Amino acid sequence: MAIKVVHHGLATTVQDLGRPGYFHLGIPVGGAMDRYAMRAANLLVGNDEGAAGLEAVFMGPQLEFTADALVAVTGADMPVKIDGVDQPGWTALKVKAGQKLSFDFLNSGARICIAVSGGIDVPVALGSRSTYPIGALGGYKGRPIQAGDELPVGEGSLASEGRSVDPGLRRVPGKLAELRVLPGLYWHRLTEAAKETFFADEWKVANEADRMGYRFKGGRKLDLVEREQPFGAGSDPSNIVDSCYPYGSIQVPGGTEPIILHRDAVSGGGYFMVGTVIAADMDLIGQLQPHTPTRFVKVDMDQALAARADEAVRLERLRVTLKS
């Protein structure tokens, strides 16, 4: 079976849960920006959680099916249509051969995940089918899909249609997004006043928000303590001797606009990092639209681990619900 791409949408790529283990070589983990949504979509159609699906940002694709299939769309609120008829999101839907899956205008959130029974069966590259466009690695020919492409689909059983994820198990951004941050190794580079304003100010997602990272603007400039320029570091006070960038780390070039490094970000560089967004909140970032008001919330390691445990409980509830 293959899916014909009638229209590619906007930056629609094949993604799964990523390719961990190569960050030390400069190859990012990649994978779906909202991993929970991708897991949910796959479970709804009877796939393994790590099967490859499609991720679309801001605008959905139009896809024609050449055989009967089960599909599910999760993540952002982007109305789903089959042959022009409205369908519910976060639900297992039956699509017949010859029918077309399409989408209306985005209501909230930023990214949808589309799972198809059997999964998108593109070749595995370094343990994953995820697309890393900058490196032309994985996915469909190493790039976003285009009109005229035919996406191969694996063999899969048609699980029960109509199953849905309870609204209480769906996580969506609020009108004011809150991202929990664990201060990092370079926190001491900020003045005491800057440490307070970083968490006190309201920031907004800038237009530069993609799979590599999210820039934030609107808060006060972060002043750095005076220092003697280290050998090997740039002259700007925000420069450091090149260091590894943890996934989710927040760099602030020039102390002006924080940038959260996301799935396809580089693994190292010469800007200091104020801290790292906790793992439990990384999916949420992928659903933030430009201009979304955002606050950073300071947490300690115990709070970060507790949040991760809470997310693990929510994921297990999802699994139990959809596999029962």
Automatic annotation (TrEMBL):
Please give the superkingdom of this protein's source: Bacteria
Q: Which InterPro entries match?
A: CT_A_B, Cyclophilin-like_dom_sf, PxpC
One short Pfam name that applies is CT_A_B
What Gene3D superfamilies does the record tag this protein with? Cyclophilin-like (2.40.100.10)
Keyword Hydrolase assigned to the entry: answer is yes
Keywords annotated in UniProt: ATP-binding, Hydrolase, Nucleotide-binding
Domain Carboxyltransferase spans what residues?
24-312
**What SUPFAM superfamilies does its record include?**
Cyclophilin-like
Instruction: Please state what the protein is called.
Output: Biotin-dependent carboxylase-like uncharacterized protein
